[in-house]
Write a sequence for this structure.
């Protein structure tokens, strides 16, 4: 298998009338999903050349997924632009992508225009209508789509998800079909995901956790339930969907699980069919994990770890529900991947060397193709493995071995995981320092309370600062706490003393 569309096609042949995907307004069967995606792909193929990006500016939905798969049929790769992002962030993403076309929902068209984008645009309703009108059984359609696929290289890209860059410009992580197939084939087997499962999607479609939801479903023929992001603001709707669709499997960010528990949603209802809870993104607070296990004592709970650049996950730890360790390991190495730790001198830390911290590095077929249109960042992060010259990704995460399994030990820089998103505190500081009200700023992440704390000098104008940041940063990266100071503490070498600030959180 070389193309993820084979997952969809094989399942559509085996289970044509089974509901493949459903959101709060729409649904489609596997056969409908295949046919509509083929039709969209045929229309897009006149605008998209092999390996070119299609930007999709709309909220996640059944239709969004049809556009994603249509893009794959056209030989391109998809990249979601979150319409909730600030105009400046969307502008940066578009400048990196230089898409062949932007597929946009009508209510997001004005915001797209604000970015200054002047390239080709397709209204989603128009594209969907044209796609549905295509006779996908026509020989000309079949021949064209087949020839597109046969001409794709082995390293054909599938999607591009953006993350923050140290310069403040988003980096697009480009991931290929081969990496997703290598990961999903093992993922579904490892965690016993079958056609009997119903997967409740929490993750945004520009976040790689959604890759596990989407392609696990397609491979095995499970039903995918897309829970609107807005529902997590008032989670009764989340619980209703989990119950209504008899969801069995949650592959969620830790922050989403914490939110459900923190807002006492289990007092509202306990969806009865959940039997697998796989979480990632940040460290799971034990009190919240224990509360989830109390509701689902017979369910399988798994801690997953892995940055976007290595395609989803490279380690996993199965929780013993009756014997939870005080510090959760990130666990054992995922099949097919090589995970190693290197010290500051670039020397390999042997698994038998207990608790020596170093940088976690990953190699194998799983690696992303690189950062799109950013060869310098790619060369810096994707390097040669010292032992054999194989391609290796330097995660920037610190870890150590203990009893033969891996434990996370923080970041080697100021990059954090917050609400399921990877952020760089320096980017937030840069945005703060760009405001007229701020003379100097420093951000600290409070690991215990899951919050970003912004310390600043200048004018004590919290409202104005928040309004200014909303124009520069996505909502999920805004500080949770703002602390005005007459001056920031400095260390002996004249740098801001973060340790002192951390003590004042």
């Amino acid at each position: 298998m070389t193309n993820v569309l084979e997952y969809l096609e094989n399942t559509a042949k085996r289970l044509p009338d089974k509901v493949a995907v459903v959101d709060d307004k729409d649904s489609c069967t596997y056969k409908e999903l295949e046919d509509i995606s083929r039709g969209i792909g045929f229309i897009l193929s006149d605008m998209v050349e092999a390996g070119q990006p299609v930007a999709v500016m709309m909220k996640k939905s059944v239709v969004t997924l049809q556009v994603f798969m249509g893009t794959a049929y056209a030989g391109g790769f998809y990249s979601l632009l979150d319409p909730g992002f600030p105009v400046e962030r969307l502008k940066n993403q578009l400048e990196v992508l230089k898409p062949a076309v932007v597929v946009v929902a009508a209510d997001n068209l004005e915001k797209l225009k604000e970015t200054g984008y002047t390239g080709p645009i397709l209204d989603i309703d128009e594209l969907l209508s044209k796609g549905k009108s295509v006779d996908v059984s026509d020989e000309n359609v079949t021949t064209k789509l087949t020839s597109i696929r046969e001409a794709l290289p082995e390293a054909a890209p599938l999607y591009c998800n953006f993350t923050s860059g140290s310069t403040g410009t988003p980096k697009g992580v480009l991931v290929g079909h081969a990496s997703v197939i290598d990961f999903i084939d093992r993922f579904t087997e490892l965690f016993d995901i079958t056609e009997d499962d119903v997967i409740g999607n929490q993750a945004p479609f520009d976040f790689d956790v959604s890759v596990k939801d989407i392609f696990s479903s397609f491979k095995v023929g499970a039903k995918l339930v897309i829970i609107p992001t807005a529902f997590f603001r008032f989670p009764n709707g989340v619980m209703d969907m989990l119950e209504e669709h008899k969801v069995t499997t949650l592959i969620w960010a830790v922050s989403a699980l914490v939110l459900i528990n923190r807002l006492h949603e289990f007092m509202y209802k306990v969806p009865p069919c959940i039997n697998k809870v796989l979480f990632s993104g940040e460290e799971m607070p034990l009190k919240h994990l224990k509360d989830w296990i109390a509701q689902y004592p017979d369910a399988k709970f798994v801690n997953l770890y892995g940055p976007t650049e290595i395609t989803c996950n490279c380690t996993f730890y199965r929780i013993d529900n009756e014997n939870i360790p005080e510090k959760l390991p990130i666990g054992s190495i995922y099949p097919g991947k090589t995970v190693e730790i290197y010290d500051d001198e670039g020397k390999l830390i042997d698994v038998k060397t207990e608790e020596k911290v170093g940088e976690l590095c990953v190699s194998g077929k799983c690696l992303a193709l690189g950062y799109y249109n950013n060869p310098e960042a790619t060369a810096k992060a994707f390097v040669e493995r010292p032992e054999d010259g194989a391609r290796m990704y330097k995660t920037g995460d610190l870890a150590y071995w203990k009893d033969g399994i891996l434990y996370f030990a923080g970041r080697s820089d100021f990059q954090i995981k917050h609400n399921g998103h990877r952020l760089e505190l320096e980017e937030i500081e840069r945005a703060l320092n760009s405001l007229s009200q701020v003379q100097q700023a420093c951000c600290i992440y409070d690991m215990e309370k899951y919050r970003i704390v912004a310390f600043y000098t200048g004018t004590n104008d919290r409202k104005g600062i928040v309004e200014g940041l909303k124009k520069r940063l996505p909502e999920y990266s805004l500080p949770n706490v703002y602390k005005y100071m007459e001056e920031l503490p400095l260390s002996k070498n004249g740098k801001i003393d973060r340790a002192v600030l951390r003590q004042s959180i």
User: Anything to note?
Assistant: The CA atoms of residues 71 and 116 lie 24 Å apart.
